[in-house]
Amino acid sequence: MSGPTVFDELFALLTPDRLLKDPRATGEGVSVAVIDSGVERAVLEEKFRAAGRPINPIDGAVFRPNEPAPRPYDGHQSSPHGTTVADIILTMAPRVRLYSADIFGPAGTCEVETVIAALRHAIDVWKVKVVNLSLGVPEHKLQQLPRRQLLHRAIEEAYFRDVLVFAAAHNEHPFTRSYPAAFAPPLISVDKGLFDDPLRFAYRLREHVEFQAHGRGYLGPFAREPATSWATPHLAGIAARILSLKPDLKPFEIKTVLYWLFRAGANGRPVTA
Amino acid sequence: MTDTVLIVDDEDSVRRTFEDWLRTAGLGVRVVAAADAEAALRAAEQTPIDLAVLDWNLGSGSDGLRLLEDLVLFHPDIVAILVTGFAHQATPLDALRMGVRDYLDKSTDLTREAFVGAVRKQLDRIRPAKRQRELNRSLAAFREAVEKVLPIVRTSAALNDPVPLPAAVKSLLRFAGRAAGAADGALVIRHLSADGTETALAYGAEGQPLPLADLPFSRSLAASVVSRQEPAVLNDVGPAASGVLDLHPFEQQRTSLLAAPLPVGGGTVAVLELFDKPAPGFTDDDKRVVAAAAEVGADLIRQAVAERQTHRLLFDAVEAALRASTGVQEAMGGAADPGGPPPDAVMARLREGLDADANAVVDADTALGLVEAVRGLAVRHGPAAVAHCTRVVNDLRQLLDGLTGIG
Q: Residue ranges of the alpha helices (H) in A169-250?
């Protein structure tokens, strides 16, 4: 085979500079749900207002075990974790419409049923396009097969509703362990890495993990310590930037675009893994 | 509780016949028989009577209705069946008011079937009300008992409480601190009870309680660590945390920090915090060591916290019972005697519970003896006497500390 094919031409066109640094790639028109420990709204509003990049109003709800309906969001966090995550998304895509689903349980972990309730609310009520899950369900809570299946089914429902779910991956992460093949899951699992530019990322296929994104945050007590919790919103924010250029992209298209961006020479090699 | 039927008739043959009918009728009642009013009142004084079968004419100028008036003094809830050969002699309204619920006429054909049927009918009416009265009485007695014993339970628990948890914390912090090279450490515990009540505690490296700032858990370092679900290091405590995090006094002015959540479970979260490792600070190896220590420490803390929760559960149960029986206590119109000793059964149960506490600083009898003495002092001489007692105890401790060199 000689000469460039259409794929070579496509890869040449799909560069990070053209997509991610397009002035219109701000997250505008894209709704993102942060299913986490709540968001300290005033802190983020003030931070971005002071930086000259005012954000859209943050809305949300509070989900607790054994409560059929969510409580209203009062603008406060249940722990700083969720605020750090939201800050990363807004740093990457400041014009997204952000929703906070606070699922932080009394023991610091969350129940499967609470995650599912928040996920369904985000899809049905808030009509979000992107869901960020940096706060996981502990493995032992998914030992029962029916509960694992319920969570699997909820993630699949999101996929079939054209909603992209980004989940933090680490060695024992329940979301990624729940799926039999890395290509099959209708979510995007994200590992941490350190990149010289937070818009850069890598495709590193290994067991249960596909992507690697920048693992340092900007706001919060442990934001500077690399974590998958901070890597996930980086990639979710990048997806929001892409979606603001083409809002009707399907989850599999986003995944493909992300892969092609990396493949097209996105210089997405991490400084450290 | 077996119902008691009193039969009063001056004719031996009638009395024996009635007794025989009742004993063979399968009513499950206790039968007490008396030939006259005096014997009937003696029996009523010794035995609760539920139903009286009274002859109208008891001889010696006495009658069943007058006897019933006296029986009511002993047992206000007593009901009666009046047996008479002259039904017209009865004054129905007065009799009804006094507790007569039925008449049997000896002048007609009084059969076994009619007699037993009348008694059965009254017993069926009596029994539900009697059960309710007994329940009310037992609730009131329970309330009286727990009101007496509650201060003792609280005081005894307070005597033993400070020991196990701080001891566990001290062991854990000593191990984790040495392994990670930390200069100092603390353990933060937060418990959220089922009713939403939040309790926060912090202990230092020696197991001593640490003062906590008045800040919501949601803005604490512990909350941040718990939500990460893994150990975290902070070697440059910079301004990045401002706005989303507040620190307790013992967390401030630290050069480095390593914190790990302890999987205690239930509504309890615990966070191990290590401070001030010399530069370059805590490493990933330290995180792994502390993660392992947290697993082991969680068992230690879980056990210690469970003991505290056992006390808490006891208090909750007792207080719930008190609330539930408030209405009954008011209805009974009775009041507990604060000067009287708690019932033996309650004290025995409490002693068992205290003996089961392996970490108690003093044995159950000693603890109970002390708190009972203080309670008695308070009852007789008021709070000032107790305050004086406390001063004497503190003086004694200082004296002994000085003599033994502890302090």
A: 174-177, 228-245
Domain B164-307 has CATH 3.30.450.40: yes
Cβ atoms of residues A115 and A33 within 8 Å: no
Which of B238, B244, B265 has its CB closest to that of A80?
A: B244
Site from A79, A85, A87, A100 to mutate, B interface, most B CB atoms within 10 angstroms? A79
Which bin fits A201, alpha (ψ -120 to 50), beta or left (φ > 0)? beta
Note the pTM of the prediction, 2 decimals.
0.61
CATH code of the domain occupying B3-110: 3.40.50.2300
HEC-encoded secondary structure of A124-186:
HCCCCCEEEECCCCCHHHHCCHHHHHHHHHHHHHHHHCCCEEEEECCCCCHHHHCCCCCCCCC
Question: Can you say whether the dihedral through the CA atoms of B315, B317, B318, B322 is positive or negative?
Answer: positive
Strands lying side by side in the sheet with B3-8: B29-34, B3-8, B51-55, B79-84, B100-105
In a domain, A148, yes or no: yes
* Domain range enclosing A120: 15-263
Residue of B nearest to A43 (CA): B243
Mark yes or no for CB contact A81/B192 under 8 Å. Answer: no
* Overall domain count for chain A: 1
pLDDT digits (tens, 9 = 90+) for A199-236: 999 998 876 678 999 999 999 888 888 888 999 999 99
Q: Is residue A6 part of a domain?
A: no
Domain boundaries, chain B: 3-110, 136-160+325-404, 164-307
Residues of A whose CB is below 8 A from B243: 40, 43, 46-47, 219
Q: Which of A47, A109, A221 sits opposite B229 (nearest CB)?
A: A109
State both tokens at A17. 């500079």
Does A160 reside within a domain?
yes
Whether the complex's predicted ipTM surpasses the cut of 0.85? no
**CATH number, domain with residue A134:** 3.40.50.200
